[in-house]
Structures are given as structure tokens and as C-alpha cells.
Amino acid sequence: MIRTRAPVPFTAAADAIVAAGRWLDRRGWAPGGGGNYSHRLDDGTLAITASGTHKGRIEAADVMRITPDGTPLDPARPSDETLLHCQIYRLFPQANAVLHSHGTASLILARARPEALAIRLAGWELLKAFPGITTHDTAVALPVVDNDQDMVRLSARIEPQLLAQPAPPAYVIRDHGVYGWGRSMDEAARVVETVEYLLGLELGLIQLGANR
Questions:
Q1: CA distances (Å), 69 to each of 66, 72, 88, in order?
Q2: Is the distance from CB of 168 to CB of 143 less than 8 angstroms?
Q3: What is the rounded distance in angstroms from the CA atom of residue 140 to the CA atom of residue 77?
Q4: What span, in angstroms and rounded, lies between the C-alpha atoms of 180 and 168?
Q5: What is the per-residue burial (b if ≥16 Cβ within 10 Å, else e) of 123-144?
Q6: DSSP string, 123-189
Q7: Residue range(s) defining the domain that contains residue 32
Q8: Deepest in the core among 28, 49, 77, 79, taking most CB within 10 A?
Q9: Is the residue at 123 inside a domain?
Q10: Per-residue pLDDT tens over the stretch 33-79
Q11: Domain count, the chain
Q12: pLDDT digits (tens, 9 = 90+) for 118-143
């Protein structure tokens, strides 16, 4: 189970992060131990996976605390992408959990469209799994940003797209993976699962030669 009411105490957040990491690994969305996960805490700080943690074998000891600006509060080194988590919490005060997955469909679609700034999802019934959407008769644009090892530069490039209205539920880093978030860990997991599934459908349409 990865349900939480958030913000939560550190112990509950660490348990939720462990459960989420193992779930993502079972789905094949954390290959090579990739990915990073975080949760907002009830004291205003954040819990986040430590750098180098294999998500299929993650334990509570692999989760650490940081300040909202990413400063470590524990001896361990936080994920290299900590700034991206901090950005999401800063821009979306309702967000209490962030998950970073590595599904194949997002990687293929974003690479196949090197000039695209977004991947458009329209008409699918499962769009209603995203927060605030109540009908399939709509469209969601998932922002796409080029990968970069400089997190300051990457976060600066994606920020205008995250501030667009309506706000996206997730975004894609080209050649890297998906960032999704929610008001709880359960909601963040539902967002990521929905994104990965719908992008798989979009990829299937391309493979069949269907136009959308």
C-alpha cells in the first residue's frame, strides 16, 4: 500500500516512498535502480530518496530529509534531481508527493519527436484518472523538456510550461522519463501509472500507422 494523507510525519513518508519504489520497480519503471521519489512532511521539510538507491531494494534507511530548497538535513546525499522535486513543491502547493518513472513509451515518443514541446493526449477515457478531469472529451498536454545534467538549467527551461494553464499533471524529460505528482502518494502513483499507460497507447497507434 502507498496511500498517505499528506503532509505526513517522516516515518509515514519513508514507508510510502519505499512502497512506491518497489511498486515502480515491479512495473518495470525503475530499470537499473533509476528514479527518485519524495514526499512533503508535516514540518515543512521534504523526504526524498538518497542518491544511488536501487528502487527495487529500497528500505526506509534509504530515505532522507531535505529543506524545501534542497539542503540536506541528514548525512546522506540526496538524489541528483532534488531541485526538480523542490520546484514541483514550490510551484504546486497542493502537491505532497512526487514520483519519477522510466517507462519505455515516454522515452520512445519524446525521442521520435525531437522538436515537440509537449505530447498531447486526447479523447481517452482514462484521462479522467488525472486530478480535476471529469470527462474523456478533453485533451491534456504533457510538457516535454530536453534532458540536461545541469538541474538549474533544466528546471529553468521546464518552469514556463509548468506554469501554463491548465496546469499539467506530469511532464516528460526527453531520453529520461516522467515526473508526476499528486496531493498524496496514492494520487502521484495514479498519475504516473495513467501517463505511462496512455503514452503506451499513443505509441501503439504510431506503430499501427494510425493518425491522431
A1: 8, 9, 11
A2: yes
A3: 35
A4: 9
A5: ebeebebbeeeeeeeeebbbbb
A6: S-GGGGGSTT---SS-EEEEEEE---S-HHHHHHHHHHHHTSSSPPSEEEETTTEEEEEESSHHHHH
A7: 10-208
A8: 49
A9: yes
A10: 889 999 999 999 999 999 988 888 999 999 999 999 999 999 999 98
A11: 1
A12: 999 999 999 999 999 999 999 999 99
Does residue 1 fall inside a structural domain? no
**C-alpha cell of 12?**
509515514
Distance of CA 170 to the CA centre of its chain: 6
Beta carbons within 8 Å of 120's beta carbon, 6+ residues apart:
139, 140, 141, 142
The DSSP code sequence of 9-38 is: -HHHHHHHHHHHHHHHHHTT-SGGG---EE
What is the model's pTM?
0.94
Amino acid identity, residue 104? T
Q: How far is CA 21 from CA 11, 57, 62, 92, 198, in A?
A: 15, 8, 11, 22, 21
Number of C-beta neighbours around residue 182 at 10 A:
25
Q: Which grid cell is 53?
A: 538507491
Rg over CA atoms, the chain: 16
Identify whether 4 is part of a domain.
no
Q: Write down the residue that cell numbers 496514492 correspond to.
A: 186
CATH number, domain of 203, equals 3.40.225.10
Distance CA 141, CA 121 (A): 6
Compute CA distances 163 → 91, 94, 124, 147, 157, whole Å.
8, 14, 24, 19, 11
